[in-house]
Amino acid sequence: MNPLAAVGRAALGGLAAIGRVALFAGETASHLVRPPFYWREFGQALQSVGYFSLPVIGLTALFTGGALALQIFAGGGRFGAEAVVPQIVAIGMVRELGPVLVGLMIAARVTSSIAAEIATMKVTEQIDALVTLSTHPMKYLTLPRVLAGLITVPLLVGLGDIIGIMGGYLVGTGPLGFNKAVYLTNTIDFLEFGDIASSLIKGAVFGVIATLMGCYFGMGSARGAQGVGHATKASVEAAAVLILAANFALTSVFF
Known about the structure:
- The protein has one domain (38-254).
- The chain has nine helices and no strands.
- The protein has helices spanning 2-30, 39-49, 54-76, 85-123, 126-132, 137-173, 180-190, 193-219, 225-254.
- Helix 6 (137-173) crosses helix 7 (180-190).
- The longest helix has 39 residues, at 85-123.
């Protein structure tokens, strides 16, 4: 019975963790309707999550779009379907690769940063100082970051989709020899409003997941340098897994 007991303990532990995250998310949302709102922290979070993520998002999307065009051209050549490169690059970037890659890059860059920052504040007793000053830590630290993720990550996803398609365009009209006007026409005609809407909705969900996991594990960090490191690692792992799981669920709903 020991293996069954181990499975049971793991299942109960997983359910307890889901419950804790759900309660944390609910408490974060409840502060949205209760004053005050810290606009300065919100502005800094917008800058950190959105603006400073632009270079890595742009480069990731550009190279992914170019590589996708090469792969589709090479694979399509096996059965004479090289002409579908513009259409598949567009739908692949907008529906799947754009949102997922942006979400994972945000998890790698922003989630780890938030978790390390908040965990360090906890270790150095800065969060205790906030409580002493009658400032709720979740209202001051968590809510601005989660709202920033909700707002900026869809914009990053839209920009990443455009840059990824541009990467495919540069490769397609350069080394692969596609006509520029025909490539653009096929790309525009093939995309639908539902594809773009699903991409932006995924971005909003992924942004909330990434920032929420950083705040959750940062707030729950143990004391000491080891606790900060563990919180940072666990936050990125949880955010990446949840983003991929949410992507599957949303894709099932939309398509």
